[in-house]
Write a structure and sequence with these properties.
The complex is a heterodimer of chains A (259) and B (425). Chain A has helices spanning 5-17, 20-27, 29-35, 81-88, 106-110, 112-123, 127-131, 133-157, 162-166, 211-218, 224-229, 239-256; strands at 39-45, 52-58, 61-66, 74-77, 97-98, 171-176, 182-188, 191-196, 204-208, 233-237. Chain A has 259 residues and is α+β, with helices and mostly antiparallel strands. With 425 residues, chain B is α/β, with parallel strands linked by helices. The chains are: A alpha+beta (259), B alpha/beta (425). The interface between A and B is large, with 32 and 39 residues.
Chain lengths: 259, 425
């Protein structure tokens, strides 16, 4: 159960998707309006607190912290992984069960749905939004970050990926779009550490020629072999590291976009 | 009116050394998934620098569609062993083609080739002829299971036996965990690991398959440690496990009697391909007498497996290899290349590591494992006219002459200089 398909998907939703709300709140006026003046910690979780992600609101700013937040907090607990996943996939509106102390933040918690809708707004962008270069750039960056962070949860928890990870070399892969976003993910002994920005010393580089290519790749609409041959995608460095990560990307797609 | 995307591609084509090939690849990408797929896909090399399409080939040289010439150290990834368009092999093939190729029945040449291989190959009492290496390795696993009545096959991690579901790594597209239900993978060169899985699966293991030495991509090759094959052989004999050697890549480049003979043991089943036909499509699984009945019971066939032209070519190829001192020459030329590369690197203050047999070398820079230098080096060498691969072992052939090696070392010298300038060390 701990690493069932539903549980891995729940880890992805809480660990890779939900934290992106902080990036949305940093630029989206509607989100900023909602959280103005908030000072509280709200933790979304499954029973027992694993997995969990805390949203830390402080003076109108929002940061997200995957994992159990140690200090005082309001917890919002989904009954199980399938329910959590259904909510994150927009298939259910079931509310998580709040902790007793939620009563002190009731008015804010009522607005949480509106805040999370802003995340959904960017992660499921309209065709109109994608025509706006600035919005498009943010959507690409946000989605690339979901992918990079998602690799951690698939790499560490997916049973089918276990033999791949077991023989994967250690090192850091950098994913970048010249003039656009850059992320990287480090692999050490079966554990993955994703981050935004450039790596100090990447062992492998996956470079996407432009934002259009990046977006098509993130939508799983790129013939990867052909794109590399055409120079749309460039691979450098340790192919032995890139190769298993590409397999993890395929697994990630299965979790995030179930057919 | 070109789209922005097409304009970008056109610009890239104009500034690169392979414009016609990129244009061809662009067409291909519209009608062929991946454009070029598999082990020769541009993704596996240095896209935009390495050639994509061959125009013609002769000896150890070939020309791409843009007219660039290369001294070839990949040899079609192994199948070319005597040189492209070897006169004796081509003559035998053409002679057979004039008679018959793919018909309702095999030609007499099938018997002649099988007899020749049984005489030549150390562990062959019989031979079954197929087309690709994976046909042979898949057949071998079936024979092992038919012979023993057991299910499990033990493989070594990182050994390549083809693309059938049973031997493709986990998580690849189209592969499900159940494909590997009866596959156990252990580390190469680890006799204790083998004995352990044998003990844990007593009476369940049909066969053990491995390449004669470790020749993975991206990392150093590793020869069998002292006593490894002897220990494997003994354990297999004791436990009734069929010992299968996948000699598709290295077969007839180490020893014309097979690589098991080279390493001093006898396989139960041994698979050949690549070097046995000098680019004509043919592979084989050979086996010892005690597996003949099981081999005869396994149903295994293909539309083109009995085509006679490749068999005639293979017979001519194997005769030339046996009579012409080919193995010795390939290893001599490989040593000259390896020693020369080390010296050239050293002269620029660089160090390279070369592993594997001289006829099938793998090179990397000593101070890196992520291959940035190697990729840059090979791109520079390719631009100058020698085809060296950054990720895969190279192959020597009998057509390589000292003049070719010297020319390549000249290309390498320039490339090492460029590496030094770019990376510093």
């Amino acid at each position: 159960m701990q690493n069932s398909t539903d549980m891995v998907r729940a880890r992805l939703h809480l660990g890779a998707v939900l934290p992106r709300i902080a990036e949305v709140a940093a630029r989206d006026k509607a989100a900023q309006d909602i959280i103005r003046g908030w000072n509280m910690v709200t933790q979304f979780q499954l029973p027992g607190g694993d997995p969990a992600t805390a949203l830390i609101f402080k003076d109108g700013k929002l940061t997200a912290q995957p994992g159990d937040y140690g200090g005082a907090k309001v917890t919002l607990t989904f009954p199980d992984a399938p329910t959590l996943n259904a909510v994150f996939q927009g298939k259910s509106k079931q509310q998580p069960r709040p902790s007793v102390n939620a009563v002190f933040h009731a008015s804010k918690l009522k607005k949480l749905d509106g805040l999370l809708a802003r995340l959904d707004y960017y992660l499921r962008p309209s065709a109109e939004m994608l025509k706006d270069p600035e919005q498009f750039a943010f959507v690409v960056e946000l989605t690339l970050t979901v992918l990079t962070c998602g690799l951690k949860y698939v790499g560490e928890n997916d049973r089918e990926a276990r033999p791949v990870v077991a023989h994967m070399p250690e090192g850091t892969l950098e994913i970048r779009v010249p003039g656009g976003p850059t992320t990287h993910i480090e692999h050490r002994a079966g554990k993955f550490n994703p981050a935004k920005g450039s790596a100090a010393r990447p062992n492998a580089i996956l470079e996407l020629r432009d934002m259009d290519t990046a977006w098509r790749m993130l939508q799983n609409k790129v013939d990867f072999f052909a794109a590399v041959g055409l120079g749309e995608v460039r691979l450098k460095g340790s192919i032995a590291l890139l190769d298993p990560i590409s397999l993890l990307m395929d697994r990630l797609d299965i979790y995030l976009n179930p057919k | 009116m070109k789209t922005a995307e097409q304009e970008k591609i056109t610009q890239a084509q104009e500034t690169c050394r392979i414009p016609k090939q990129l244009a061809l690849f662009e067409r291909a990408s519209k009608v062929i998934p991946g454009g070029i797929y598999g082990h020769i896909a541009p993704l596996m090399s240095i896209p935009g620098v390495f050639p994509y399409y061959t125009d013609r080939a002769k000896g150890c040289h070939y020309w791409d569609v843009d007219g660039n010439e290369y001294i070839d150290y990949m040899c079609a990834f192994g199948p070319m062993v005597l040189g492209y368009h070897h006169p004796k092999v081509d003559e035998a093939a053409m002679k057979q083609a004039a008679l018959a190729d793919c018909t309702n029945h095999p030609g007499p040449v099938m018997v002649e080739l099988a007899e020749y291989m049984v005489d030549m190959v150390s562990s062959a009492d019989w031979v079954l002829l197929v087309k690709n290496g994976n046909d042979a390795t898949s057949y071998a696993t079936k024979v092992a299971r038919a012979h023993t009545g057991r299910k499990k096959i033990v493989l070594c991690q990182g050994h390549y036996h083809g693309v059938a579901a049973w031997c493709t790594g986990p998580c690849h597209a189209g592969i499900v965990p159940e494909d590997h239900t009866n596959i156990i993978r252990i580390p190469w060169n680890d006799l204790d690991a083998f004995r352990k899985v044998v003990a844990e699966n007593k009476g369940q293991i049909a066969g053990f398959m491995a390449t004669p030495y470790h020749h993975p991509t991206f990392i150093d090759q590793v020869m069998p440690s002292e006593g490894y094959w002897k220990g494997i052989r003994e354990t297999c004999d004791k436990e009734g496990i069929v010992l299968m050697v996948d000699d598709v890549r290295s077969g007839f480049r180490l020893n014309q009697r097979g690589s098991d003979a080279h390493f001093g043991f006898k396989a139960d089943l041994i698979c050949f391909g690549k070097a046995m036909g000098n680019c004509y499509p043919i592979s084989a699984c050979a086996g010892r007498e005690e597996f003949r009945i099981a081999a005869s019971k396994v149903f295994h066939t293909g539309s083109y497996w009995f085509a006679a032209v490749a068999m005639a070519a293979s017979l001519a190829c194997l005769k030339e290899m046996r009579d012409g001192g080919v193995v010795e020459k390939m290893n001599r030329m490989g040593k000259m290349l390896g020693d020369g590369l080390k010296d050239a690197a050293r002269s620029h203050g660089l160090e390279v590591i070369i592993t594997g047999p001289p006829a099938i070398p793998y090179m990397r820079f000593a101070n890196e494992t992520d291959l940035f230098r190697m990729q840059f080096f090979c791109a520079e060498v390719v631009k100058r006219g020698s085809f060296l691969h950054p990720h895969h072992n190279w192959f020597m052939c009998a057509a390589h002459e000292e003049a070719d090696i010297r020319q390549t070392l000249g290309h390498a010298d320039d490339a090492f200089k460029a590496v030094k300038e770019k990376f510093g060390s």
